[in-house]
From TrEMBL:
This is Glutamine--fructose-6-phosphate aminotransferase [isomerizing]. It catalyses: D-fructose 6-phosphate + L-glutamine = D-glucosamine 6-phosphate + L-glutamate. Its EC number is 2.6.1.16. The keyword Transferase applies. Its main location: cytoplasm. It is an enzyme of class 2 (transferase).
Length: 369
């Protein structure tokens, strides 16, 4: 079994470390050599439909839903198409509103999650076009959708999803950039800038893995902690939600993600002496605002691990410890920022003696509704 795990003590750690390759494999062949355009040649969706799309519904569960939240931000800001991100088990039991050219995107690592499939089938029954982002060739989602983008993460064994999430983000970036380009919302220069940024990510993810020892140390704080908070704004908030989920899933510590600007509307009451707070500050345009929220939790005694880009030593003035991420385009930062949070969850679960790869009460693929 240890051989299957490639020498790693757990599948989860192996899969975290496979992310540079997973990201590279998911990008392969999908960026023109001269960075002039996205090549998603597998899509049946033609340019005319991409131009006509007037609304997008993204449907998913769990970690895939969190990827959808980043997808919304990316598609709305580049392609200027309104996007709703919905939890499959909610979406399928109400009567969603469709515009004439609504595109539905389902995201599912396994392609077999019952609620996501039920939503896909209901949408198709209503004559709508469905694009699936999935990691499993031959899965139900892959076979039943009109269009498919495969994430080439390779088999994900650990219940807690890691490399599937980062590759789902890659798929969503590629799709968002493509739609934006086709619709004329971004020009050739911006396309080139974004595609070069994506191309640099495998290398950057490799570099982020070097933060592992720092996270292993910080995770020891979680041995006796029952509560923690993850805060951030905009894209950082979406990543914070995924970080909190990871920690809950495998360490069984209660973790909550909060939009940093929303803390003052209630959550601050829960911050007391010594409560660990993970503060994401990877977005330069929101940096000052986020710092002011970090100051608020520090003033109540929180012990804060901050995350920001390399070179921004300013954060050290405010927080107790800093994780530095390689420089990338701010919109691509989620792919890097999630990795230390995966590592934190992993090491916290190990420190607490939990069964990391098979957490209690959870299944890798949920085929009940
Ligand atoms: C389960 C897994 C999660 C996963 C979710 C959705 O709850 O434990 O890790 O995010 O299902 O799975 P899917 O295969 O549809 O992405």
């Amino acid at each position: 079994v240890s051989a299957e795990r490639g020498g790693y003590p757990h599948f989860m750690l192996k899969e975290i470390h496979e992310q540079p390759k997973a990201v590279r494999d998911t990008l392969r062949g999908r960026i023109a050599e001269d960075f002039s355009r996205v090549q998603l040649d597998e899509l049946n969706l033609d340019d005319a439909f991409m131009k006509a799309v007037d609304r997008i519904h993204i449907i998913a569960c769990g970690t895939s839903w969190h990827a959808g939240l980043v997808g919304k931000a990316v598609i709305e800001s580049y392609a200027r198409i309104p996007v709703d991100v919905e939890i499959a088990s909610e979406y399928r039991y109400r009567r969603p509103l469709f515009t004439p050219n609504t595109l539905v995107i389902v995201i599912s690592q396994s392609g077999e999650t019952a609620d996501t499939l039920a939503a896909l089938r209901e949408v198709k029954r209503q004559g709508r076009r469905v694009l699936a982002i999935t990691n499993v060739v031959g899965s139900s989602a892959e076979r039943e959708a009109d269009d498919v983008i495969i994430t080439w993460a390779g088999p994900e064994i650990a219940v807690a999803s890691t490399k599937a999430y980062t590759t789902q983000l890659i798929a969503l970036y590629l799709l968002g950039i493509k739609m934006a380009h086709v619709r004329g919302e971004i020009g050739d220069d911006k396309v080139r800038e974004l595609l070069k940024g994506l191309e640099d990510l495998p290398q950057a993810t490799e570099q982020v893995l070097d933060t592992a020892p720092q996270l292993e140390r910080f995770a020891q704080r979680y041995v006796d902690t029952m509560d923690t908070f993850f805060i951030g704004r905009s894209l950082d908030y979406s990543v914070a939600m995924e970080g909190a989920l990871k920690l809950k899933e495998i360490s069984y510590i209660h973790a909550e993600a909060y939009a940093a600007g929303e803390l003052k509307h209630g959550t601050l009451a829960l911050i007391t002496e010594g409560v660990p707070v993970i503060a994401l500050a990877t977005q330069p345009d929101l940096y000052e605002k986020t710092v002011s929220n970090i100051v608020e939790v520090k003033a109540r005694g929180a012990f804060v691990l901050g995350m920001t880009w390399i070179g921004n030593e300013d954060l050290e003035k405010t927080v107790d410890e800093v994780i530095y991420l390689p420089k990338t385009l701010p919109e691509l930062a989620p792919i890097l920022a999630v990795i230390p949070l995966q590592l934190l969850a992993y090491y916290a679960a190990v420190a607490r003696g939990n069964d990391v790869d098979k957490p209690r009460n959870l299944a890798k693929s949920v085929t009940v509704e």
